[in-house]
Amino acid sequence: MPPLLEVDAVEVSHGDLKAVHGVSLDVAEGQVLALIGANGAGKSTLLRTIAGLKPAGQGRVVFAGQDITHLPAERIARLGIAMVPEGRLLFPALSVEENLLMGALTRRAGPWSLASVYELFPMLRELRSRNATQLSGGQQQMVAIGRALMSNPRLLLCDELSLGLAPLVIEEIYRAFARIRGQALAIVLVEQDVTRACAVSDQVLCLLEGRATLQEASAAVSHAQIAAAYFGE
Ligand code: ATP
């Protein structure tokens, strides 16, 4: 079966700075790819390019057999790619429930609805009328995840789910992640915690200054390999 997502020799620049140098990856339906690498390695840029938020200078992004490299982000969302962005980027003037419903604007058929998101994060049901700005960081992350799920994506792009959150909240987010994974959608996950990244993924891809330095089955990868790829030793 062809992969659901295929990124082929993609190059992305911010002005004169090339942030992603010829990176390729494949993610099959139901698989999780963890994207690791130091700050500034190009992880967010690559996710944003897949989502159509940052154009690729070279290379191709193919989703479900369709070349989406030059499609606008809104079309890509409608094809079934949703993103949990770094910093959550909730709509500050809207309530929790209104934020979740924004995710349903590009809704496809599937298991996720307000009811199933509230079941995943029961706290959000209690907070549903609360303004997004009145939430803790962990609660905001739950809304950002729920909003992405509301579209019933085939591919979920997650940028640093645990950034800045307390350990107990991170555990809660990753318990939910395991349930989301169980719904058989493909996931690309940027995660700074390398041990966790390997534990929750099928493949791991390490970027160093925009280049792929390791691409391996997560179960097969050693700490020494990761350290070498991460620091370029
Ligand atoms: P982090 O973990 O810090 O988010 P990252 O691996 O996600 O890092 P990117 O955010 O993709 O890395 O950044 C890759 C490179 O591109 C960095 O050198 C960064 O400074 C630069 N960069 C990112 N966004 C922009 C932008 N909007 N304008 C200019 N340069 C940018």
Description:
The chain is α/β, with parallel strands linked by helices. It has a single domain (5-231), classed as Rossmann fold (3-Layer(aba) Sandwich). The chain has helices at residues 43-50, 73-79, 96-103, 114-120, 122-126, 137-149, 167-181, 194-199, 223-231, and strands spanning 5-14, 17-27, 32-36, 58-63, 66-67, 81-84, 155-159, 186-190, 203-208, 211-217. The strands form 2 sheets. A 6-stranded mixed sheet has the order 6-7-8-3-9-10, with helices on both faces. The N and C termini lie far apart (36 Å). The mean pLDDT is 93. It binds adenosine-5'-triphosphate (ATP).
CATH-defined fold name = Rossmann fold
Rounded to the nearest angstrom, the radius of gyration is: 17 Å
The span between the termini is 36 Å
Q: What characteristic shape results from the CA principal axes? A: globular
Using the 3D structure, state the CATH architecture. 3-Layer(aba) Sandwich
